[in-house]
Amino acid sequence: MPELPEVETVRRTLNQLITGKEIARVTVHLPRILQRPREAELFDAVLTGQTVRTVERRGKFLRILLDQSVLVSHLRMEGRYGLYRADEPIEKHTHVIFHFTDGTELRYKDVRQFGTMHLFDPGEEFTLPPLMKLGLEPLDEAFTFESFEAKLGKRSTKIKPFLLNQEYVVGIGNIYVDEALHMAGIHPEREIQSLKKEEKRRLHEAIVVTLSEAVEAGGSSIKSYVNGQGEMGMFQHQLKVYGRKAEACHRCGHVIEKSVVGGRGTHYCAKCQPLKAKRLHKDT
Ligand SMILES: [Zn+2]
Prior knowledge:
Belongs to the FPG family. This protein is α+β, with helices and mostly antiparallel strands and 284 residues long. The chain has helices at residues 4-18, 40-47, 145-152, 159-164, 174-184, 197-220, 222-229, 277-283; strands at 23-28, 34-36, 52-58, 61-66, 70-74, 80-85, 94-100, 104-109, 116-120, 231-232, 257-261, 264-268. Zinc ion binds next to loops.
């Protein structure tokens, strides 16, 4: 599933490709992608004649701002957008096509069919699902250490499931949560109430650094990426711990372990990220 950096890359790319284009009509081949309104005819009627003003992001959701509407789009597992000429063949799994007046088309392709689209009046999107209950935006200036510490509170929840919960902090998924916890030297199963202030500070910084670096990596690859198929979506970043089971930790050389935390495959270095800080003192 794309996480904040991938969605941010798609946002930037879409913003370059479709801003200023006017929608001539919308074709919907798979109505279940539409969550609001659910009727393809109404979706088409509302969007026709509107021009794309800009593309923004909230968590893992794209916000496509038009003259009088906001289209909120979630790619979920396999969603992809691509810009094509109208005469190019339509590929399999293309579910929604935004036809522009300049003869190009934004096509939404989704093999798994889990993606969603919601249409709102401007501003209304923040008062209703799916954006209503979203948590802190980690690359915003408002994501200060104080705001993060307040959100953490004194819960007995394990830190990894907390970070994956979009109601607390948005945009972090299974890959970047493992990366950030490794950078901060915090075991994924540590209870929040056991974290020292210094550890919370390290974690706050690690979240920002991890996501920013991944956004930069994605940003620098936009050009070649789009020129390939005219399609944008996931790509691989340099990962330090995720997917590296049984390989050596870049920091200490210890072997990277994999376990299941909160039902999710979890990669960590038991030496850099000890579960119980006290045990180190007992042993020595
Ligand atoms: Zn290590």
